[in-house]
Amino acid sequence: MTHANLMNNYFNLNSVHTEEDFRRRFQMRGHVFKHLLDDVQQVNLYFRQKRDRVGRPGFSPHLKVVVALRMMAYASSADSLDETHGISKFTCLDTLTEFCNTIVQLYKEEYLREPNHEDLNRLIRKAEDCGFPSMIGSLDYMHWDWKTCPTRWQ
Fold this sequence. Notes:
Helix content is about 55%, strand content about 0%. With about 150 residues, the protein is mainly alpha-helical. It has 2 domains: about 1-105, no CATH class; about 115-140, no CATH class.
């Protein structure tokens, strides 16, 4: 039932939520999610749907990836996802571990590497455009004033 609701809300042709809703809630576009889902399913069997001992379908790949992303994007606790997605705390934590390990395996060469000279120049230009010149390698910007900073972070 959780899988059916998830598919109806975000992934079916006439889904309840728009692409913009998806992007806001998952911090990525729908096509990026689909690409990510395909990649993790190809590399890690954990993300393929299996049947349990009595023949019922287990958690769907969509649901597992959504749980992992929600834990990372919103710092959601595993207990809170149990209530909303019907997955136990331990399964949520296992899913997050499997997801992170798979992402590193898949993308470390392209995205999880030290920046080269060209990357650094691009990042410095981007930071300067945002008003943070020479920010690479500096923690000075951890101390800039934020007028509306939540009190628990002060």
